[in-house]
Automatic annotation (TrEMBL):
<dbReference type="GO" id="GO:0019254">
    <property type="term" value="P:carnitine metabolic process, CoA-linked"/>
</dbReference>
<dbReference type="GO" id="GO:0005777">
    <property type="term" value="C:peroxisome"/>
</dbReference>
<feature type="domain" description="Choline/carnitine acyltransferase">
    <location>
        <begin position="82"/>
        <end position="657"/>
    </location>
</feature>
<keyword id="KW-0012">Acyltransferase</keyword>
<dbReference type="GO" id="GO:0004092">
    <property type="term" value="F:carnitine O-acetyltransferase activity"/>
</dbReference>
<keyword id="KW-0808">Transferase</keyword>
<comment type="similarity">
    <text>Belongs to the carnitine/choline acetyltransferase family.</text>
</comment>
<feature type="active site" description="Proton acceptor">
    <location>
        <position position="391"/>
    </location>
</feature>
<dbReference type="Pfam" id="PF00755">
    <property type="entry name" value="Carn_acyltransf"/>
</dbReference>
<dbReference type="InterPro" id="IPR000542">
    <property type="entry name" value="Carn_acyl_trans"/>
</dbReference>
<dbReference type="InterPro" id="IPR039551">
    <property type="entry name" value="Cho/carn_acyl_trans"/>
</dbReference>
<dbReference type="InterPro" id="IPR023213">
    <property type="entry name" value="CAT-like_dom_sf"/>
</dbReference>
<dbReference type="InterPro" id="IPR042231">
    <property type="entry name" value="Cho/carn_acyl_trans_2"/>
</dbReference>
<protein>
    <submittedName>
        <fullName>Carn_acyltransf domain-containing protein</fullName>
    </submittedName>
</protein>
Length: 666
């Protein structure tokens, strides 16, 4: 497969600049002819060219979409999420299936998609595929975003797996200089104060409009950040969105040693409590009443499988309606942790990551969480703090933006303010009545979750030889280079290509969430093969060319996804249309190639700054558990002169037992 394509690759590498220039001037001519785009042509770089096409009012989409990098026109407000053509997505399916298959498997795949859509052309022309496509297009015409409700349901709410060390994600603050109870109280008050100010900016519509190039991004996710909670139910959970609460909440919930407290942050005049007032409540009420750990903490059940929690939730809420309402309606949960024990041979950052991700087990701080809450702040016993967020209602970028904002306040030490004088609800301990049968459920949940927490390894590392500035200087995408390094690391260890899901934003569309940038592509697979298994290793010049083409292809694929041409999301839509119609599952979704492609052995996410999607201003590592038992989860945060990584694996898996080995292999 690889050797026969080598001459083609060399030709592609040597002529890529020429092809880009052709594309550039072709776009100029199309613009002159187009009455739909009234703009002055301004020459710019064409390195962001998007190499695919399908007609939109007579103009190639590949050229239309790259206009943001080439011409100066009005900013675009978020639009409806589109439906790609059927041929586009199934052609993509065949191309992405190829690097993951042997020759025999590939030929069998072609027999499935030689329809270039379903068996023997029926899926594409008047058959099953066309019917599903037409229904999906009709649905898209009636909705702002046909994808997002389905995506949230299928990816999150219908899943019966636990949230903790599952889809919940952790992010860490930089190391702050504090120790002991006094230091913990001081940092806690400052985080509460800064977070409340960020919440007020959201409610007052004072956030800066975020953009990706000339595209304005949908800002509605910020309304879900504060006050939202996921409610456990059988078959499918529901989300209680904070932005819909009326009146808006003024309180937060603090957990310490399994004890829960309701603490008012805003007074009756809408002013934020001063740092001294917050410290006083912590010192005089919360700490004295939470010295001993709760034996049967209800919060532990939020770490259980969803059906287990749904069973208990209904009964426990009937017994404790006020306490549940206080938690669910709170702006956020803040967890005051004790020192973690039982961890050996791990760095401070690794320990911080595990505490933020799952709490370190029931003997440490896992009981000190409410994993259903969209936003939880984790306050360690000394120097380390972080966030755990529930993913169904929000993505990482708004959380990172909020954390950057809080870090700015710590950098400037801008926590002044007089004591508020308006009416304040008293700080109250939330009591829970727990019958004996649910006490047993709590103990079972502790034992099961302890096994899970002990099995997850997280390694947080910094690559300090260069950051995103170095590859940019040579015209190479930093993100593409990072993804290529992951592909190479996996291939060096496992000697096969990894089905990879890289999450990227779809927020240039109304109510947009995330799309999948899929790897490997043909060129990344060739690069990893030639670097590792080639009988005769190519010379450095050829390897550089391969790297350039592979990273450029990844960049093009990413731009396609950002612009609504995601193969994965489109195929998901077609599959769900078939399910709604009660039809048999189309064969494309049952073939071996599709199943292999959907078993993600690398799940990767970049920690993004709100305006550039190129990293945060501060050191904010992020981590999440692998989506598959034999997989890796890799989160990375590119800075100008270094790159930060957090890699998570399951230690008990014989294939992927070492996160550190994966990082070293790249």
């Amino acid at each position: 497969m690889f050797r026969s394509a080598k001459s083609e690759l060399r030709w592609t590498c040597e002529t890529v600049e020429h092809l880009q220039q052709q594309l550039y001037w072709r776009a100029a001519k199309l613009l002159e002819k187009s009455s739909a785009l009234n703009a002055r042509f301004v020459p710019r770089s064409v390195s962001s060219a998007v190499y695919y096409s399908t007609d939109r009012n007579g103009i190639d989409v590949q050229l239309y979409l790259q206009l943001s990098a080439m011409i100066n026109i009005e900013e675009r407000t978020p639009s409806k999420y589109p439906v790609p053509t059927l041929r586009h997505s199934v052609d993509k399916f065949v191309k992405y299936a190829r690097p993951l298959q042997s020759d025999n498997e590939y030929h069998r795949t072609l027999s499935v998609s030689d329809f270039t859509l379903l068996i023997a052309n029926e899926f594409l022309e008047g058959g099953e595929g066309e019917k599903l496509q037409n229904i999906l297009e009709e649905k898209a015409m009636k909705m702002e975003n046909w994808l997002t409700p389905w995506f949230i349901d299928e990816t999150y709410l219908k899943s019966r797996n636990r949230l903790a060390a599952g889809t919940n994600t952790a992010m860490m603050f930089p190391k702050w200089n504090f120790t002991g109870q006094e230091g913990q109280i001081d940092v806690t008050a400052k985080i509460i104060h800064a977070a409340a100010k960020f919440y007020r900016k959201i409610m007052n519509n004072e956030l800066t409009q975020e953009k990706l190039g000339r595209f304005m991004l949908d800002m509605r996710q910020y309304n879900h950040l504060f006050g939202s909670t996921r409610i456990p139910c059988h078959e499918k959970d529901i989300i209680k969105y904070g932005g819909t609460l009326n009146p808006q909440p003024r309180h937060i919930v603090i957990i310490r040693n399994g004890h829960l407290f309701s603490l008012s942050v805003f007074d009756s005049n809408g002013r934020i409590r001063s740092i001294n007032q917050l410290k006083n409540e912590l010192n005089t009420v919360i700490y004295p009443k939470s010295e001993e750990a709760v034996e049967f903490p209800v919060s532990m059940l939020t770490a259980a499988d969803r059906d287990v929690w749904a069973d208990a939730y209904k009964s426990l809420k009937e017994l404790n309606p006020g306490s549940f309402k206080a938690v669910e309606d709170s702006l956020f949960v803040l967890c005051l942790d004790r020192e973690a024990n039982g961890f050996y041979g791990v760095s401070e950052l690794d320990l911080q990551a595990m505490q933020c991700l799952h709490g370190g087990g029931s003997q440490n701080n896992s009981c000190n969480r409410w994993f259903d809450k969209t936003l939880q702040f984790i306050i360690g016993s000394d120097e380390f703090c972080g966030v755990n967020f529930e993913h169904s209602s929000i993505d990482a970028a708004p959380v990172a933006t909020m954390m950057d904002y809080i870090c700015d306040h710590f950098d400037l030490d801008s926590f002044g303010g007089e004591d508020v004088t308006g009416e304040l609800a008293p700080t109250n301990a939330l009591s829970f009545t727990v019958p004996q049968d649910f006490q047993e459920v709590i103990m079972k949940t502790k034992r099961k979750f302890d096994e899970i927490a002990n099995d997850i390894e997280v390694k947080v590392l910094t690559f300090d030889r260069f950051g995103k500035a170095f590859p940019r200087h040579y015209g190479i995408s930093p993100d593409g280079l990072t993804q290529l390094a992951m592909q190479l690391a996996y291939y060096r260890i496992h000697r096969k290509q990894p089905p990879t899901n890289q999450a990227t934003t779809l927020r240039q569309f109304l109510d947009g969430r995330t799309g999948t940038v899929r790897l490997p592509n043909f060129y990344t697979s060739m690069f990893t093969y030639e670097m590792t298994d080639a009988e005769e290793r190519p010379n450095d010049r050829d390897l550089v060319h391969m790297m350039q083409v592979a990273t450029q292809q990844h960049k093009n694929d990413k731009l396609q996804t950002i612009n609504g041409m995601s193969m994965d999301r489109h195929l998901l839509g077609l599959l769900l249309v078939a399910k709604e119609l009660g039809q048999a599952t189309p064969e494309i979704f049952t073939c071996a190639a599709y199943k292999k492609m959907m078993h993600y052995t690398i799940l990767s996410t970049q920690v993004c700054h709100f305006s550039t999607y190129l990293g945060t201003r501060h050191f904010l590592p992020m981590c999440c558990a692998p989506s598959e038992y034999d997989g890796y989860n890799v989160c990375y945060n590119p800075q100008e002169e270094e790159m930060h990584f957090a890699v998570a694996t399951y230690k008990s898996c014989s294939k992927t037992f070492s996160s550190y080995r994966f990082v070293r292999s790249s």
